[in-house]
Amino acid sequence: MGTPTIDQTLEAAKVFADPTAYADEQRLHRALSYLRANQPVVYVDYEPYRPFYAITKHADVMDIERDNELWLSEPRPLLGTAEADDLAKAQLEAGMGLRTLIHMDDPHHRDVRKIGADWFRPKAMRDLKVRVDELARRYVDKMVEIGPQCDFVTDIAVHYPLYVILSLLGLPESDFPRMLKLTQELFGGDEEEYKRGTTPEEQLQVLMDFFNYFTELTISRRKNPTEDLASAIANGRINGELLSDTDCLSYYVIVATAGHDTTSHAIAGGMRALIEHQDQLERLKAHPELMGTAVEEMIRWSTPVKEFMRTAAADTEVRGVPIKAGESVYLSYVSANFDEEVFDDPFRFDVGRDPNKHLAFGYGVHFCLGAALARMEINSFFTELLPRLDSIELAGTPELASTVFVGGLKHLPIRYSVR
């Protein structure tokens, strides 16, 4: 194979600063595999982003997530352009910015997380399962209704988890299309098909639209509390004080967006994987008891959240590479989830893969609050679909979104027979 060159390493490292790389799986995984083997901690300095160190190995990502005193979410929790970072900081200082759970560090993170935690515990999930199963059935029925062809992403995958999470929040169904559009605009700032504008100011308006909507909701739920998650957030208190406007509105945004967008990408990615690996589809149909491991493999395979960032609180090193206090690292979940040292034959889609120590939900104190719900939704959908599925194939070329944060398939044309 020869000694890796500086040029090869620099070229591979470009994928972290290029949203289009996530729409080109071959290019992406070729670069990530190269870096894991040759330079697992790599310095990345490409405009329009400020420099960072990309972390590509599973073990290193876990170590960093585990040590949340050394590695902080603030002030750079995710990869944004320098201009966008500066604007977000200014807006937050003016009381108009976004500060969700992913932006926070303990002890404030722990206190804010508790407000919504009960809604995602096992008992709450058991209570919610009837509704989730009902919605799974509704959307499989919709496949029958609009078949024998559809765009699985736009017709099914984006709507089913949206209905689940917004029902949990207690929002009216008439507002669901508005929430879908805002979510796609918020997470799709690098994708031509989704983004609202080209400047950070234009994209910031998406956030303001979210805030305006949820400000009205907060006023309503504080005046007339109901038995839903929106009321729990609106009336949540820390040390006897209601959440600040910023924390309250940001809580809604993270639940309403991450609560469905990531799951829709996992469902769509899982569907594509089953279509492209018909042997695994038939295996799962013949052995439905494998659904639990199949769901984990779908999540690993699609890895909807591509990265989070952490900033060093003190001088340290990762795998012998010195990192100074104030410098940032990029945690590549996609790379970690295909690490050859952790996953046997990682590029094999295996519905029975066990163990499956993927990091798609993160790790440590920032482990995804809604992981149990996401798993249940994916499980319910495919548990409903597969016994009714006679055949399925691609009806066109799948299209992936350009992104550096959350993303997956934006189009999945399929042809099928469902009873």
Automatic annotation (TrEMBL):
Keywords: Cholesterol metabolism, Heme, Iron, Lipid degradation, Lipid metabolism, Metal-binding, Monooxygenase, Oxidoreductase, Steroid metabolism, Sterol metabolism. The keyword Oxidoreductase applies. Belongs to the cytochrome P450 family. Its cofactor is heme. The lineage of its organism: Bacteria, Bacillati, Actinomycetota, Actinomycetes, Mycobacteriales. This is Steroid C26-monooxygenase. It holds the Pfam family p450. GO terms for molecular function: cholest-4-en-3-one 26-monooxygenase activity; heme binding; iron ion binding; steroid hydroxylase activity. The keyword Oxidoreductase applies. Pathway: Steroid metabolism; cholesterol degradation. GO terms for biological process: cholesterol catabolic process. InterPro entries: Cyt_P450, Cyt_P450_B, Cyt_P450_CS, Cyt_P450_sf. SUPFAM superfamilies: Cytochrome P450 (SSF48264). It comes from Mycolicibacterium hassiacum (strain DSM 44199 / CIP 105218 / JCM 12690 / 3849).
